[in-house]
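Let us practice reading a record.
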Amino acid sequence: MNTSTPQGERIAKRLSRAGIASRREAERMIAEGRVSVNGKVIDSPALNVTAQDRIEVDNAPLPEIAAPRLWLYHKPAGLITSAADEKGRKTVFDALPDTLPRVMSVGRLDLNSEGLLLLTNDGGLKRKLELPSTGWLRKYRVRIKGKPNDEAFAPLRKGLSIEGETFQPMSVSLDRQQGANAWLTIGLREGKNREIRRAMEAIGFEVNRLIRISYGPFRLGELKAGEVEEIKPRVLADQLGLEVRVEGHAKAKTGPKTGKLRKAPPKKSTPPTRDGGTAKRGGFKPRPKAR
């Protein structure tokens, strides 16, 4: 019996690294018959490919794998963090500037949440940053309705279980009271769906505004709603230990839907420290499926 390991990598991983889609979405594309290898349409992700294989998605050649890149995006409220929405609502990717290459979001922010959303062109980097083992602290400014005292948040600091789902302990600080609302700063190291909103509901409070202000070493800073800023390759290499090309990539900002790139002005804020869906237009553009 041949027990040798096949050469290359799984086709879904290859599509993900090329920035086409997440692995799960790539598997769905394969099941839909949209992917071919060496001229033959495949229907299973159980296939290893190498650099010698000719891969097409929707009859378009798969692009070369580019150097990993990472962007900070200030997501406004009212956008879905998804490639498409069955209800026809506007997505993050509809709002991004046309100057960006094809990108994927690192995790999600729900419809009514705003603030820092990381974007990358590399499926492997996306997966790495989303893994619980990465353990990066994510901080949020949260406004809740009510006049709580600090002891009200003890269950969140200890960790709690909601409908059989365990939430890890959160750091919670009560910053100030503003009329009928209170502002908090919350930190957590996992990314479960609507985690902060659900946790607050469990202890009797309603979240009426939620802004992510940092994700690991990367901070929202002075980035305005709808703006995008690329992380310098040297910073990316330092923070993530990645080998990235330095030439040809400069830190830049783009305003929403302007299609114009401008140099980022010097910031007064301190540089990132260690404590801290899918694709966008550009690059690979799948052709519409034949009906």
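A brief commentary: The chain has seven helices and 19 strands.
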